[in-house]
Amino acid sequence: METFSGRLAVVTGGGTGMGRELVRQLAAAGCNVAMCDIDEDNMAATARLVADDGSAVALSSHRCDVADATQVDAFRAAVEATHATDHIELLFNNAGIGGGGSFVSGDRTAWDRTFDICWGGVYNCARAFMPLLVNSDEGAIVNTSSVNGFWASIGPDLPHTAYCAAKFAVKGFTEALIADFRVNAPHLSAHVVMPGHIGTSIALNSTAAHGGVDVVAVRKQLAERGLPVDQLTDDQVEALVIERAEAFRDDAPTTAAQAAGIILDGVLSGQWRILVGDDADDIDELVRSDPWHAYEPEFMQRIIERGHFDGLAR
Fold first, then answer.
1. CB 196 within 8 A of CB 278
2. What SS3 state is found at 271?
């Protein structure tokens, strides 16, 4: 694909973060866009930014929980009707949340919710929109995995099982599509995106998606890390979680806009594997060079010595 101009793209999670920036940059490139999100106010804010950017394209917003196959099918039908089309050229499976850290001691509801959005959302949307991609003259599916799609960790003492399992599934699925497309849809391409620490509101959105701060679980996690949580009130614990989520967004080495630019450049240049951020490049190199020690406590120190994740590891 040499240009986005005149194409139609579907972007999930278009209300904030990388999804919002993908919508803005696609529109700026002359691409028509259908976005979905569970938050209509956030999508409205994205649409206003597109208008402020001066992008004169067809942009539609659709409320959809990508974990719900019925809602996704309705989203596809709405895209077909709104854009009067039987095909799309681009599908960006970007929506995701964190949560469900421990499989052993964590809450199953949080685990399943995280997995169902991060993996189930990719599966549901790929199933629903594949016929429309196949109907195009050329098209691409772009699935957002993570560095946690090749390194299932955020530190040796912080379980992160649901998100990592989902992102490994996204990576494996996308790589498997390469042969599937070669045989059954040679006009399509598959791209897996693996961002490092990107300045998005995923931590804030994840808290909201799970119904707010789980104070009991947070207290337990902090206590296991040796922090004096007994001296904190519930309100202080909640404030701490929000503060860290905002710092994750505001102190990131790569902005959401920069990440979207890297992703779109990668699609146009035909990269099937798109690493986003210097931290993603370095972690990929470290894991490949010494996979046997990737989950040992000292491995995080190697990452920190490369200049990454120091603040997140505290």
1. yes
2. coil
Burial letters 223-259, b for 16+ CB under 10 A, else e: eeeeeebeebeeeebbebbeebbeebbeebebbbbbb
Count Cβ neighbours within 10 Å for each residue of 174-183 and write b for 16 or more, e otherwise: beebeeebee
Helix (H, G, I), strand (E, B) or coil at 139: strand
What domains can be seen in the chain, in order of their start residue?
Answer: 8-200+252-305 (3.40.50.720)
Distance CA 121, CA 72 (A): 8
H or E segment to which residue 141 belongs:
strand 139-144
d(CA 292, CA 281): 19
State the Cα–Cα distance between residues 52 and 109, nearest whole angstrom. 40
Cα atoms in the Cβ-side hemisphere of radius 13 Å centred on 248: 20
Dist. CA 73–CA 53, nearest whole Å? 31
Q: What is the pLDDT of residues 126-180, one digit of tens each?
A: 999 999 999 999 999 999 999 999 999 998 988 999 999 999 999 999 999 999 9
pLDDT in tens, 188-230: 999 999 999 999 878 888 878 888 878 777 777 777 777 777 7
Which residues are designated catalytic? 163
